[in-house]
Write a structure and sequence with these properties.
Mean pLDDT of chain A: 90
Low-confidence stretches of chain A: 201-205
Keywords (chains A, B): DNA-binding, Transcription, Transcription regulation
Protein name (chains A, B): TetR/AcrR family transcriptional regulator
Order of helices and strands of chain A: HHHHHHHHHH
CATH architecture of the largest domain in chain A: Orthogonal Bundle
InterPro entries (chains A, B): Homeodomain-like_sf (IPR009057), HTH-type_TetR-like_transc_reg (IPR050109), HTH_TetR (IPR001647), Tet_transcr_reg_TetR-rel_C_sf (IPR036271), TetR_C (IPR011075)
Organism (chains A, B): Rhodococcus artemisiae
Oligomer: homodimer
Strand content of chain A: under 5%
Number of strands of chain A: 0
Pfam families (chains A, B): TetR_C_11, TetR_N
Shape of chain A: elongated
CATH class of the largest domain in chain A: Mainly Alpha
Largest interface: A-B, 49 and 49 residues
CATH topology of the largest domain in chain A: Tetracycline Repressor, domain 2
C-alpha cells in the first residue's frame, strides 16, 4: 500500500501546521493563562489526542510555533549584521528587536512562551537547548569577529558580554519599566560597550 | 459596643496575615500554575470570600506577601550600602541578591509573583508603582552619591545605568542561562561600570 503512507504523512504535516497556527492565534487573543489544549484542538480542527501525541503541554506547542519562525539554528542562520562597525551593528539588531516587540502578533506569543518557560523546568531545558544556546552562538560569532579586528579584548567573557548587551532590553520589555524606543536601544549598546562610568564619552564619540 | 470593633479588627489582621503566609507556603510547594484561591483559603482557615474581599487575584495576594517583607519604601528603606566605594557596594548588593535567590522559600514565591506580573496588566501596574519604582529610587540615591563624589558622570541617565547594572542578574536567574555565583555578580558590576570594551582593565584595576 505505497500510497497510504504519503497521504497519512501529508495529513499529519497539515495537522501539525494547523495546530501551531491555532496556538499562536489563540494565545494572542486570550493570553497564556486562558490558553487551553482543547481550544487549540477546536481551532485547528483536530482531536485533543492528536496534540497530546506530539506535545506534552501548551507551552511545548508554543515553543515549536516560535521555533518555526525563529529557528535559532546557527548553521542556517544569516547571523548578525557585520559592517565592521560593532556599535552600529548591535544597534541595528536591538532596533530590529524593538520593532518586533511592537507587533502584538509577535509579542503576545513570545510573552506567553516566556511565561511557560519560567514556570516549567522541562520546557525551560528545551528552550535553552533549542533556542537560547544556538541564538547565543550566533551572537558570539559577531563578538569574535570584533575581537579579531581588535574592537574587543581577546579574553572577553563572551557570555557576560552578551548578558550586558541584551538583558536590559528583555527586562524593560518583560516588566514594562519604560518605553521601548530606538533611543533606548542605542543607549544600552553604548552603555554595554563603554560602561556607565564613561557613558558621556561614548555618547559624544 | 466599643469592644466589638477592636476584636473584629484583630481577627481581620490575623486572617490577613494567615492568608499571606498560606499563599507564600503553598506557592513554594505547588508553583504558580497550580496555586488556587481555594487552597489558600483552606490553608489559612478562612472562607474564599474573605480573600476575594481583599484581593482580586492570587497574583495580588503574592504581591502583598512579597511587599510585607520587602517594602521597597524609599523613606523607610535602609538604602544601599555606602562605603564610598561604588564598585564594592554594588558587588555587596548583587551578592546579597544571589544569596536570596538560592533560598527556595524566597525564590519560588518571587518567581511566581514575576510570572503573575508578566501576564496581568493591572498587577503589573501595581507592582511597578508599589515595588519597582520605590526600589529604583533607593538605588538611584546611591548612584547620585557616586555622582557627587565624582565617581560617575553628572549627566548619567540613571535609569539606563540601573538597567545595565541589575538586568543581567535578573535575566540569568529567570531563564536559568547560567549559575548564579558571586563571581558572576562581581563580573557584571565591572562590565556595567566599565563596559565590555574595557573589561580587562576593569578586572585588573
Amino acid at each position: 500500500m505505497p500510497s497510504i503512507e504519503p497521504n497519512r504523512s501529508r495529513r499529519s504535516a497539515a495537522s501539525h501546521t494547523a495546530i501551531l497556527d491555532a496556538a499562536v492565534e489563540l494565545v494572542a487573543e486570550v493570553g497564556y493563562a486562558r490558553l487551553s489544549i482543547e481550544a487549540i484542538a477546536t481551532r485547528a480542527g483536530v482531536g485533543k489526542q492528536t496534540i497530546y501525541r506530539w506535545w506534552p503541554s501548551k507551552g511545548a506547542v508554543l515553543l515549536d510555533a516560535f521555533l518555526r519562525k525563529n529557528t535559532g539554528d546557527s548553521e542556517n542562520s544569516p547571523g548578525l549584521p557585520d559592517t565592521g562597525d560593532l556599535d552600529a551593528d548591535l544597534k541595528t539588531v536591538m532596533r530590529a528587536s524593538i520593532e518586533e516587540l511592537h507587533d502584538p502578533a509577535f509579542e503576545k506569543p513570545l510573552r506567553a512562551l516566556t511565561v511557560a518557560v519560567l514556570t516549567d523546568d522541562a520546557l525551560a531545558e528545551e528552550y535553552l537547548r533549542r533556542f537560547e544556546a544556538p541564538t547565543r552562538e550566533v551572537k558570539k560569532q559577531r563578538l569574535r569577529t570584533a575581537q579579531e579586528s581588535g574592537q574587543l579584548p581577546d579574553d572577553l567573557d563572551l557570555d557576560a558580554a552578551l548578558d550586558a548587551i541584551f538583558s536590559p532590553l528583555t527586562q524593560r520589555w518583560l516588566f514594562r519599566t519604560g518605553p521601548l524606543t530606538a533611543d533606548y536601544a542605542d543607549r544600552m549598546v553604548e552603555v554595554a560597550l563603554d560602561g556607565i562610568r564613561r557613558t558621556d564619552s561614548a555618547i559624544s564619540r
